[in-house]
Design a protein that fits this description.
single chain, about 150 residues, mainly alpha, Globin-like, globular
Length: about 150
């Protein structure tokens, strides 16, 4: 009986600990060492906040540790605005422009940031976010959650 009760309890994804800003950025750096972790996180968070509904962005923010939360709202240009239905190219270009990176490298950056982000989220929240993402982004989100090898 206790086993069944344990299955019903919400569990953390990844390491299940939620981490401070330094640990979170260290996880990102380990995934994408060729990029500045803070800039990569801000670029991805900015694009996500542009793509996801505002209520879901707030729920995502609540899942993050207090010292990681400001990174989600670092993109001043988009705060308070309704999300835009970005297509794949626009989304990738937004991240690439933030990082001053080549658009073909964006999937690698997304995977690295998503992988670290999953260690901060409850499984239910991760699935809710996945359901709001366009199909072309859901695969990268899910692969990062399952710790599948990062894209080359």
């Amino acid at each position: 009986m206790s086993m069944q009760k344990q299955d019903e309890t919400q569990s953390w994804t990844g390491l299940g600990v939620g981490t401070d800003r330094k640990s979170f950025l260290d996880k990102v750096s380990a995934q994408i060492p060729d990029y500045d972790a803070q800039q990569a996180v801000e670029a991805v968070f900015c694009a996500l906040s542009e793509r996801l509904p505002g209520g879901l962005v707030r729920q995502l923010e609540e899942q993050l540790s207090p010292d990681v939360r400001p990174m989600l709202s670092a993109c001043h240009r988009h705060r308070g605005e309704e999300p835009t239905k970005l297509d794949r190219d626009d989304f990738y270009l937004m991240v690439a422009n933030h990082l001053n990176a080549e658009p073909e490298n964006v999937r690698l950056v997304l995977h690295g940031v998503f992988s670290a982000l999953h260690s901060q989220l409850l499984e239910a929240e991760a699935r809710k976010i996945e359901g709001q993402l366009p199909r072309w982004l859901q695969g990268t989100w899910a692969a990062a959650r399952l710790h599948v090898d990062r894209p080359a």
